[in-house]
Design goal:
- With 129 residues, the protein is of the alpha+beta class.
- Helices cover 33% and strands 32% of the residues.
- The protein contains five helices and four strands; from the N terminus they run βαβαααββα.
- The protein has helices at 19-24, 39-44, 53-64, 71-85, 124-127, and strands at 2-13, 26-36, 89-98, 110-117.
- α3 (53-64) packs antiparallel against α4 (71-85).
- The chain is elongated, with a radius of gyration of 16 Å.
- The two termini are 27 Å apart.
């Protein structure tokens, strides 16, 4: 197993419970880790045998562009997209941070970190939809 990751992707997106958040948007930082069996790539040196960083970025961007009330929902969509595209993916960790949450606190951000397994939190029936 190998861990393929992208740290601290930055997006402006319209996620949040408050109407203003969904209208104006906010800045988010997203990091992902994908655990996968990419052993074949050790000998083939072929991009087809890996988890592509570029594809991961585009999957995350696509899901971040869809407004949602809850970051938990966005994280689950990101993981589902990764599982649909990469059969090799066994586990996906998604961390989404809202850099300036509207809660009156001085902080560097608030958000969620969720770990999904192909045969766990997101089942195959949901993935195959």
């Amino acid at each position: 197993m190998a861990c393929v990751f992208i740290k601290n992707m930055r997006f402006h997106a319209k996620h949040g419970v408050l109407m203003q958040e969904r209208k104006v948007g906010a800045d988010f930082i997203v990091s992902i880790q994908v655990m996968a069996d990419i052993q074949k790539a050790f000998t083939t040196d072929c991009v087809e045998d890996i988890i592509s960083y570029a594809t991961l970025f585009h999957l995350v961007k696509r899901e971040m562009d869809i407004p949602s009330a809850l970051l938990e929902h966005v994280a689950a969509r990101i993981a589902t997209s990764i599982f649909k595209v990469f059969d090799k993916a066994k586990e996906v960790e998604v961390e989404i941070t809202k850099t300036n949450p509207p809660m009156g606190a001085q902080c560097d951000g608030a958000g969620v970190r969720e770990t999904f397994t192909r045969h766990g939190l997101i089942d195959d029936e949901y993935i195959n939809k």
